[in-house]
Recover the amino acids of this structure.
């Protein structure tokens, strides 16, 4: 494993992998239906959207910020894009995707501009803009649902498409994760994202353009939200623009479970993937254990607290050995 | 005449109508070491910020290599070869040593992609240049302050640096580390790099500077050569008044207020025996890592000892937490006042009364705000904080005045034993002598004081007993008559710096 990663695997990642293996073991022993091709494919398909968003959230958290507007951006970008394509009669997946990406990117850039020029905290800014974006849509575009019969056929085709039996969604999500990994670890841009997450002051002192970096971070989050919005509406039958919004904290929680610091500057793709996997697997497998979905929230809350306290305990312990009492 | 790299002419700077700098002229010659000396808040840091493009001067011009530069920005300054190492070092704690060192170079090179090998190459090259040996893959947060400093220097040199500003680079270092740093600085000078030091510690200034520029209250007092000055005249130029401290002497024998018997904690300290009388000022010195801070934390209940006894006024006590320590009349002024000693974003009042809330609350637990104000006012006056507004946030005070607040906050608890860990680090000489005065006054009133310090002059001026620690052991104890001996300071210096592992100096 260390060889594949080209680095030491973090204790947190080890611990998450252990949980996953043990949990999957328990579920597959209790239910024979779990380890079947169909369940696995369903799992991959339903995880795709979350993985795409998690990639964006990871980048935002590493940069030292937080974004709670991405579900609103996803819904607004994709819904508007679908309505535009229906209005123009262009039943083409790439067109819908492109428009949604552009809209998402614009909304992300607006976040960055507000954060930088008005110097408001990232949380407050995105809390505000999420209402603004969503409110803009409900007021000027509407919230009418689109039924399967009216839905552009390109979306229906995208929803069921598979390559070598693997859902296209999942392939898309993997490509995005690879791209995110490449940006974070192989480009100068990625280095500046880590740098501003470590310390904005220090970053600007070495001559990093903090605004440019933030502009990228939030636009990237917006673009990924735009893509995810289209994926999301392709997956479900009825396009209902009042869904999805409200699940953003769960996705942030998934990334945090993966050991990514909310204070910025540190985090790994593997951690984010493991965090999402845990949440997704819990969500879709409680049925196999004969538990109702209401157990879901309870489990996820517990995992969140436990995993974060493990990190915090480790840090406190090592600080105490070094006689540091500040944390 | 040699080449002038950077010139500031008639520089004025005001913040909100207050003049921070008044008509300052400064010239920095190639390959010279210049020291900017002055008390906290005199404007020397502001001057550095102007010369490196962080602030714009209100009036005046800046010339770099003969060319007048308007609107100097940090990026422009870096391109012209000006690098500043700030007191906080501006490193990236979660990134590795290599990434930190290569960061400047990478940002400047405008490369789009990262080449890990290139990063490691740059880092190794730069560390070699200054003769430092560090694990380049270690995250910077795990390094000691001295090593962090080396990383910051290596990073600053990774570009074509002509002038290097260093803001108080030696405050957090031990003597040994300081001399290593100064050696590096002299090496840089030989390579033709100009270094501008901003420092409080007078003797270091003398050792290596070609020119000493003294600033007081925003006005340049003058440029001096090191030969023209002695510590006394320099401190006079810096403060505008004569400063001298007499030795502290304890009048007569009194009863013990604190005794440590065979106190031991593995890897921290071994078999420590100390007797502290009322009115004693016991100096504990030794290199960083000698166990002195660990010992202080144990007496204050933050680092439980494994064996041995602590006696307060002859009675054996268990000190498991700072609360126990306070109940037994023990106070600690911590090494790092910013993170451990103060609530930076709270007012002077809140900081001062934080230690005695129990005394100013009524039986329903509600604070008596009138009494709180009176107490805070008295304390602020007693320790002579320069800004007497008790509602002012402590963050806005200078280092020396912040330290006076920490001192005052513990003084109000009226402790029997007061441990001061490096009380004058980063404190200007004016405040320093006021702090010494307060310490000595308290001792005269019968407080037992333990003063932990790197600075032998500080120990000599204030202590009537000294213990030198090395690798967790007290290797030399000195009493009042020992301290009166001729050449004792040099002897102590040699003991501290030459003691080898496990060797006991008799």
């Amino acid at each position: 494993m260390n060889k594949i990663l080209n680095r030491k695997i973090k204790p947190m990642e080890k611990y998450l992998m252990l949980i996953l293996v043990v949990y999957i073991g328990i579920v597959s022993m209790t239910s024979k239906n779990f380890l079947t091709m169909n369940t696995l494919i369903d799992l991959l398909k339903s995880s795709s959207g979350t993985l795409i968003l998690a990639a964006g959230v990871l980048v935002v958290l590493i940069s030292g910020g937080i974004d709670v507007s991405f579900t609103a951006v996803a819904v607004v970008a994709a819904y508007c894009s679908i309505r535009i394509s229906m209005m123009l009669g262009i039943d083409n997946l790439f067109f819908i995707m492109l428009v949604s990406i552009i809209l998402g990117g614009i909304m992300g850039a607006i976040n960055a501009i507000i954060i930088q020029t008005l110097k408001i905290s990232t949380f407050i800014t995105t809390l505000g803009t999420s209402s603004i974006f969503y409110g803009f849509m409900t007021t000027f575009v509407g919230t009418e649902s689109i039924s399967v019969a009216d839905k552009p056929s390109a979306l229906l085709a995208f929803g069921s498409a598979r390559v070598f039996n693997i859902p296209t969604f999942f392939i898309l999500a993997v490509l995005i994760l690879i791209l995110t990994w490449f940006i974070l670890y192989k480009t100068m841009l990625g280095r500046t994202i880590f740098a501003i997450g470590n310390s904005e002051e220090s970053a600007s002192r070495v001559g990093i353009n903090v605004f440019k970096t933030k502009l990228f971070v939030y636009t990237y989050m917006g673009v990924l939200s735009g893509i995810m919005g289209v994926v999301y509406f392709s997956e479900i039958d009825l396009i209902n623009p009042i869904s999805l919004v409200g699940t953003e904290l769960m996705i942030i929680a998934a990334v945090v479970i993966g050991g990514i610091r909310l204070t910025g500057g540190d985090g790994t793709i593997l951690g984010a993937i493991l965090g999402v996997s845990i949440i997704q697997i819990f969500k879709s497998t409680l049925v196999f254990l004969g538990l109702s979905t209401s157990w879901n929230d309870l489990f996820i809350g517990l995992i969140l607290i436990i995993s974060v306290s493990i990190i915090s305990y480790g840090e406190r312990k090592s600080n105490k050995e070094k006689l540091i009492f500040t944390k | 005449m040699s080449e002038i790299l950077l010139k500031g002419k008639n520089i004025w700077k005001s913040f909100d109508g207050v003049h921070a700098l008044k008509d300052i002229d400064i010239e920095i010659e190639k390959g010279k070491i210049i020291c900017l000396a002055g008390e906290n808040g005199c404007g020397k840091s502001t001057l550095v910020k102007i010369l490196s493009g962080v602030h714009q001067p209100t009036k005046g011009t800046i010339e770099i290599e003969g060319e007048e530069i308007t609107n100097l920005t940090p990026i422009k300054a870096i391109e012209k070869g000006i690098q500043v190492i700030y007191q906080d070092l501006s490193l990236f704690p979660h990134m590795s040593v290599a990434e930190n060192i290569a960061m400047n170079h990478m940002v400047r090179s405008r490369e789009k992609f990262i080449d890990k090998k290139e990063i490691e190459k740059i880092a190794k090259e730069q560390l070699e240049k200054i003769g430092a040996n560090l694990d380049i893959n270690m995250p910077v947060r795990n390094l000691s302050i001295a090593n962090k400093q080396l990383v910051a220097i290596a990073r600053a040199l990774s570009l074509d640096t002509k002038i290097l500003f260093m803001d108080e680079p030696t405050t957090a270092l031990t003597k040994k580390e300081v001399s290593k740093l100064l050696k590096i600085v002299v090496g840089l000078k030989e390579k033709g790099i100009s270094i501008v030091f901003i420092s409080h510690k007078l003797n270091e200034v003398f050792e290596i500077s070609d020119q000493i520029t003294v600033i007081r209250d925003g006005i340049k007092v003058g440029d001096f050569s090191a030969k023209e000055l002695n510590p006394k005249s320099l401190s006079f130029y810096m403060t505008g008044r004569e400063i001298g401290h007499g030795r502290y002497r304890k009048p007569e024998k009194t009863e013990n207020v604190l005794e440590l018997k065979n106190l031991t904690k593995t890897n921290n300290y071994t078999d420590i025996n100390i007797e502290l009388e009322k009115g004693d000022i016991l100096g504990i010195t030794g290199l960083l890592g000698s166990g002195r801070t660990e010992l202080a934390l144990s007496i204050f209940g933050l680092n439980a000892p494994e064996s041995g006894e602590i006696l307060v006024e002859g009675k054996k006590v268990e000190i498991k937490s700072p609360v126990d320590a306070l109940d037994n009349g023990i106070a600690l002024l911590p090494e790092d006042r910013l993170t451990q000693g103060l609530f930076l974003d709270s007012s002077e009042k809140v900081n001062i009364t934080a230690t005695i809330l129990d005394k100013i609350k009524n039986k329903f637990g509600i604070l008596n705000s009138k009494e709180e104000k009176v107490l805070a006012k008295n304390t602020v006056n007693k320790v002579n904080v320069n800004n007497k507004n008790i509602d002012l946030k402590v963050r806005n005070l200078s280092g020396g005045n912040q330290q006076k607040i920490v001192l005052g906050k513990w003084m109000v608890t009226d402790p029997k034993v007061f441990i001061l860990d490096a009380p004058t680090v980063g404190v200007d000489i004016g405040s320093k002598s006021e702090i010494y005065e307060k310490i000595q006054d308290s001792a005269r009133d019968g407080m037992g004081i333990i003063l932990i310090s790197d600075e032998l002059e500080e120990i000599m001026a204030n202590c009537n007993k000294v213990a030198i620690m090395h690798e967790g052991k007290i290797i030399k104890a000195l009493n009042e008559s020992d301290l009166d001996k001729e050449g004792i300071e040099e002897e102590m210096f040699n003991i501290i710096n030459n003691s080898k592992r496990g060797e006991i100096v008799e």
Remarks:
- Chain A has a mean pLDDT of 85.
